[in-house]
């Protein structure tokens, strides 16, 4: 579906930087010299709209005034995203609630994947950290952004890590209250209506009777804007649980505007209620996604020295994930904290001072340690109250490189480490979704990060050969050459039949 044109706000000379204004004035004085100069001045002086960008390239806009207008049209996204990617350009990805770079480290440092990704979060220290580590970082409130911005028309990957506080005891589990869940469910239904994501009845009572012609989905979108949909969560008595609506809004908005979105992944607390998980499965399945599933994963199983148990949503529009690289390690990847830090395994770390709880107030380092929280800034060694973990040690405990460039105060850095998506798990999730050989890449990363534990690892094999090898197990990967027209038609028929049967089963469940 083609993208819906968005009206452009007028841009006056007052909004243009001084250099651009000077260039416009110079062009105006030259306009009287020749008809060609007058035509050039007229083209540069008029206000650009999104319609003016169709069929054009960034290189076509050379004047400072035009470039200034492009920045305004694109904001807050990169100007290059206003234009279609060229052959060979990396795929574009949006990373919502990005934090300090867990998804980025998994994709870029571990998988060594070339992704054109924009990371968004309203935490300034986290975005400063992401920018320092080489990411394109935007400090903004995600709920104030337009998920159907024209710059997003070529987005292929969507990542999200909404705050989890209200689903856990730390947030008093406010998100689990029936009234809050009911409001959130109503908001999800409003988002589906705004995108026209409706199941269309085919009349068959049994799912097995459905064929490819029964893959009914879509419909006329309602008149609500995305801001109006967001307003449905206003009565919720939570601080963060309503942000679970954002990934659904963005996924449906991108689908509705015709973006080639083929992969979505999300991290959330393992305490997320099953019914909320079901809403994501229903909406994405209804929108035609081939595989949508939740997995509960622990970073300790992927080589992290600390536990971090989280629920991950894995969604692929075009491929069944049971034909992809496996999601779970084939052999144990265990890293004890003492070995990762080069400390005595019998060292006891005190986490709660003199206070004691049912779980105790300390732990030994000769094990995989409990999940890191922001309170690590005050943890100390038993018998040495002046001891504090350095930020390099904090990074290693969450499977980040020791030189990860944390920005902000020590308190802000510890909070970022506590909130991060475990990079070792993000590599496995994205490797599974994109068909990349993540076990080999993860072993190499762990050998570099914890050489005393995992030793050295041989150089990686040819990346293209590995990518094609995994693609051959199931439906070929996106963009690989050599797919014939008959093969594409056969794949479309298979996918349509699968979607029809899945949607028919869902209709039967809804009737019951």
What does this entry look like structurally?
- The protein is built from 17 helices and 10 strands.
- It has 512 residues and is of the alpha/beta class.
- Strand 1 (91-96), helix 4 and strand 2 form a beta-alpha-beta unit.
- Helix 1 packs antiparallel against helix 2 (35-45), helix 4 (102-110) crosses helix 13 (423-434) and helix 6 packs parallel to helix 8 (245-256).
- It starts with 17 loop residues before the first helix and ends with a helix.
- A 7-stranded mixed β-sheet has the order 3-2-1-4-5-7-6, with helices on both faces. Strands 9-8-10 form a 3-stranded antiparallel β-sheet, with no helix packed on it.
- The radius of gyration is 25 Å and the shape is globular.
- The protein has helices at residues 18-30, 35-45, 64-74, 102-110, 124-132, 178-195, 226-231, 245-256, 274-286, 337-341, 391-397, 410-419, 423-434, 438-449, 451-454, 463-471, 485-511; strands at residues 91-96, 115-121, 136-139, 155-160, 263-269, 291-298, 309-316, 348-350, 362-364, 380-381.
Provide key terms for this protein.
512 residues, alpha/beta, seven-stranded mixed sheet, three-stranded antiparallel sheet, 17 helices, 11% strand, globular, disordered N terminus
End-to-end CA span: 33 Å
| Largest sheet descriptor | 7 strands, mixed
User: What is the element string, with H for helices and E for strands?
Assistant: HHHEHEHEEHHHEHEEHEEEHHHHHHH
Give the radius of gyration.
25 Å
- How would the global form be characterised? globular
Number of helices: 17
Residue share in β-strands = 5-15%
Average predicted confidence as pLDDT: 82
Strand-pairing-aware structural class:
alpha/beta
**Based on DSSP secondary structure assignment, what is the total number of beta strands?**
10
Query: Reading side by side through the largest sheet, how are the strands ordered?
Result: 3-2-1-4-5-7-6
The helix content, as a percent range, equals 25-40%
Low-confidence stretches: 1-32, 459-485
């Amino acid at each position: 579906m083609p993208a819906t044109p968005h009206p452009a706000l007028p841009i006056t000379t007052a909004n243009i930087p001084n250099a651009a204004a000077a260039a416009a004035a110079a062009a105006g004085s030259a306009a009287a010299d020749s008809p060609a100069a007058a035509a050039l001045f007229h083209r540069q002086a008029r206000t650009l709209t999104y319609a003016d960008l169709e069929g054009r390239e960034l290189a076509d806009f050379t004047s400072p005034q035009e470039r200034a207008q492009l920045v305004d049209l694109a904001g807050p996204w990169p100007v290059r995203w206003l234009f279609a990617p060229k052959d060979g350009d990396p795929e574009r990805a949006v990373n919502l609630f990005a934090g300090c770079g867990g998804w980025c480290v998994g994709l870029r440092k571990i998988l060594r994947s070339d992704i054109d990704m924009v990371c968004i979060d309203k935490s300034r220290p986290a975005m400063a950290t992401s920018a320092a580590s080489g990411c394109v970082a935007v400090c903004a409130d995600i709920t104030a952004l337009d998920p159907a911005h024209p710059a997003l028309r070529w987005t292929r990957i969507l990542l999200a890590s909404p705050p989890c506080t209200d689903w856990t005891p730390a947030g008093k589990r406010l998100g689990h209250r029936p009234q809050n869940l009911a409001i959130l469910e109503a908001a999800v239904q409003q988002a589906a209506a705004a995108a026209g994501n409706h199941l269309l009845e085919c009349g068959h009572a049994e799912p097995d009777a459905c064929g490819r012609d029964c893959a009914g989905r879509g419909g006329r979108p309602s008149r609500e804007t995305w801001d109006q949909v967001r307003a449905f969560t206003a009565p919720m008595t939570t601080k963060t649980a309503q942000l679970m609506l954002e990934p659904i809004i963005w996924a449906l908005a991108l689908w509705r505007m015709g973006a080639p979105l083929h992969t979505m992944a999300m991290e959330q607390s393992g305490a997320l209620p099953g019914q909320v998980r079901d809403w994501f499965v229903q909406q994405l399945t209804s929108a035609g996604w081939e595989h949508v599933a939740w997995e509960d994963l622990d970073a300790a199983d992927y080589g992290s020295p600390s536990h971090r148990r989280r629920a991950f949503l894995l969604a692929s529009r075009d491929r069944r994930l049971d034909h992809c690289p496996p999601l779970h390690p084939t052999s144990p990847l265990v890293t004890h904290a003492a070995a990762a830090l080069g400390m005595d395994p019998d060292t006891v770390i005190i986490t709660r001072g003199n206070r004691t709880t049912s779980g105790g107030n300390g732990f030994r380092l000769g094990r995989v340690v409990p999940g890191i929280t922001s309170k690590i800034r005050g943890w100390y060694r038993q018998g040495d109250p002046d001891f504090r973990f350095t930020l390099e040690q904090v990074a290693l405990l969450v499977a980040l490189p020791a030189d990860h460039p944390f920005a902000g105060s020590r308190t802000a850095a510890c909070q970022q480490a506590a909130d991060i998506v475990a990079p070792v798990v993000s590599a496995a999730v994205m490797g599974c979704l994109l068909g990349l050989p993540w076990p080999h890449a993860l072993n190499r990363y762990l050998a570099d990060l914890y050489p005393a534990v995992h030793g050295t690892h041989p150089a990686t094999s040819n990346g293209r050969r590995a990518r094609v090898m995994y693609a051959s197990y199931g439906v070929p990967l996106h963009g690989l050459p050599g797919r014939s027209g008959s093969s594409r038609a056969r794949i479309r028929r298979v996918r349509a039949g699968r979607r029809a049967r899945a949607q028919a089963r869902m209709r039967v469940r809804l009737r019951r």
